[in-house]
Amino acid sequence: MTSRYADMFGSRARDGEGALGIFTMLGDPDPGSCLACLDAIVAGGADMVEVGIPFSDPIADGPVIQAAAERALRAGVRTADCLEMIADFRQRHPTVPLGVLTYANLVVARGIDAFCQQLADAGGDSLLIADVPSIEVGPYAAAARRAALDLVMIAATNTPGATLQRIAAAGSGYTYCVARAGVTGADREVHFNGHPALFAALAAAGAPPPSWGSVSPRPTTFARRSIRARPG
Amino acid sequence: MKFDGRFGRFGGAYVPEILVPALEQLEAAFIEAQQDPGFAAELGDLLSTYAGRPTPLTRCRNLSRGKTRIYLKREDLLHGGAHKTNQVLAQALLARRMGKTRLIAETGAGQHGVATAIAGALFGLETCIYMGADDVERQQLNVFRMQLMGATVVPVTTGGRTLKDAVNEALRDWTASFETSHYLLGTVAGPHPFPLMVREYQRVIGKEAREQILGIEGRLPDAVIACVGGGSNAIGLFSDFIGDEKVALIGVEAAGKGLSGREHGATILKGRPGILHGAETLVLQDADGQIDDTWSVSAGLDYPAVGPEHAFLKESGRAEYVGVTDDQALAAFVALARGEGILGAFESCHALAHALQLARAGEDRIILVNLSGRGDKDVAQAQTLLGDRERNAA
User: Which residues carry this modification: N6-(pyridoxal phosphate)lysine (chain B) (predicted)?
Assistant: First the structure.
C-alpha cells in the first residue's frame, strides 16, 4: 500500500471511522473546471479521491459517467492531459490519496509499464482497470508493482472464494467492493446484503481494506454518517 | 475457467469482475452440452427441421468466368435469412439449460437481432435487443421483424450510434441482470467463451460446404471467401478448411469509402492490438487507445474490433484479409441480382466482390463464397444508393 493510503486509512481507523472517497471524471467538462472541482472535493471532506481517465467505450459505467467521459473527450482531453491534471492536483494536495479508474485499452495503448510509471510519476497512488478482472490481471499487477503503484481490485458478493484469493493476492491499496449488480452511476437503490460476509472473506484472504463502491448521481444514497460508521 | 480463451496472444476475458461468474457458468454449460448427446440431437433436429439445414451449395452459372467456378454457400436460405440462426438456436438451448428466462442481444444490420427474436419466440424467453439508433434507422424492416416476434428493440443513442455502442449497452444490461439473463452475443468476438463457443456453433457451415464441394467437384476449393465484421460467418466457413493448407482462406473487410481515410470498418487491415468488448484483438483506435468510429454501407460490418481468432489467423499468416469498398460491394449486389437472380446481403456482397475480382483471370480455380445472408433487408437502401448514383451520373 502506498504511504498516502496507509497514512489516511491509519488516521481514519484511529478516529474509529471509515474513509470517504469521491469520484470525478478528469477533464469534465474541461480541465480548468475539473481542477476546481477536485479542490472542492477535498475541501468538502473527501479522504481520498478517485478520478476517471475518459474512455470512448466505458462498458462498466452507466449513463452519468459515460456522459462525463463524452464531455471530456469532446473538450479534447487526452490521457497526457489527465496525467498533467493529476500532477497539478498532487502539487496542491500532497497528502490526499488519488487513484485512477480507467479501461484496459488506454493502458495497453501507452504500454502497461509506461502507463503505470507515468501515473506514479504524476503522483497517482493507485490504478483500477474496470475491465481487467483477476483472471487477466497478472501483467498489470506486475507493472503496477514495478512502478510502486497500488493496483485496486474489484470484488462483489457473487465473487467465488477462489477468485477472492486471487483478488487478495493481486490487489493493493484497497479493495473496491461493488455495492450492487450493474454499472456504476445508475440511479438504483443500493442494498448491502451479503457485504458483511464478503468483507469477512476478504479479511480472511488477507486482501487490502474493503471499500464500498457504487457511484450514484443521488448524493443521498451514501450518507457520510453511514460510511463513517464502517470500519476500514 | 477451464480454458484461457486465447488464440495465440489474442482473446481472453476482459470484463468487469462481476461478470466473470456469468462467463464461468457459460463456459461450464457449453463444455457440458458439447459432451451431451441429447443436446447435439436436439440442436441437430432444430437445425434441420426448423432452420432448414443443410443449406445448398449453388454454382454461379453466369458470374463464373472462364475456367473459374464460383460456388455460393447459401446461408441466405436459412430460416431468418442469415447464418446467425445456427448459433442462436444453440445458445438459446444453452440459456434454457442454465435456467435463464431472458435473452439480451446486440445487433448491427439486424440479422442477429432477428435470429435472437426467433429463438426468444421459439423458447418463450423474454428478448431485449440493443441496436444503434442509426442502424434502427437504416434497417427498419428488421426492426419490425424483431418486434413482430415479441422482442423489445432498444435504440442506442450514445457514441457512434452503431453496433459498437449496442454492444456496450448489452454488456451493461448483462452486468445488472446476469442472474436471469443470457447475453446471446452475436459473433466470434467478446470475452471467452464466446469466440470459441460461437465458432463451434457456426462450424456447421464449413463442415457442410467441405462435404458438398467434394461431392460436386471431387476436390477441395482453391479459396474460401467470407466477409468479416465480427467474423462469425467467416470463422464458420474457415474452420473445417484450416488444416487444408492449399485452401486459401480469405476474409473480406469493409473498406467503406476507402482505406486511405477513416470511413471504413477494416479492423484487421488498419487496426492494431488492443482490448475492446472483452477481448484482446485488433482494434481501430487512435494513438491514445480511444476507439474510432467506423463506416460501412453494411451495418453488419460497421464494427471497430474483430473476433480474436481472426487476429490470430492474420498474424500467423494462415488467412489473408482484403478490403472491399461500399461501391464495389454495391456493384456485386447488382451483379448477383442480375446474373444469378439472388439478392445477397450487403455484407456477403463484400465477399462476392472479391471473388468476382479473382475470377476475372478465368483460371482453372474453384472459389467458394459464403453468402451469409439475404439482401431483402438492404433493398430499400440499395434503391436509394443506386438512385443517388444515377442522379450523380446524370
Answer: 84
From B19, B280, B291, residue closest to A57, measured CB to CB: B291
- B294-347 residue pLDDT tens: 999 998 899 999 999 999 999 999 999 999 999 999 999 999 999 999 999 999
Q: Which of A61, A81, A125, A150 is catalytic?
A: A61
Among A71, A135, A154, A166, the residue to mutate for chain B (most B Cβ within 10 A): A135
Q: Name the residue facing A158 among B21, B177, B276 (closest C-beta).
A: B21
CA-CA-CA-CA torsion for A181, A184, A188, A192, nearest 10 degrees?
A: 50
Q: Find the closest chain B residue to A112 by CA distance.
A: B274
Separation of CA B303 from chain center: 11
Contacts of A59 in chain B (CB under 8 A): 15-16, 168, 171-172, 175, 277
Distances (CA, A) of A206 to A166, A167, A202, A209, B300: 11, 10, 6, 9, 47
Residue B279's alpha-carbon distances to B5, B13, B191, in angstroms, are: 9, 6, 5
pLDDT tens digits, B81-139: 999 999 999 999 999 999 999 999 999 889 999 999 999 999 999 999 999 998 898 78
pLDDT at A182: 64
The rounded Cα B195 to chain-centroid distance in angstroms is 12
ipTM of the complex: 0.94
- B60 an active-site residue? yes
Domains and their CATH numbers in chain B: 19-48+84-194 (3.40.50.1100), 53-81+203-393 (3.40.50.1100)
Q: Does B287 touch chain A (CB under 8 A)?
A: yes
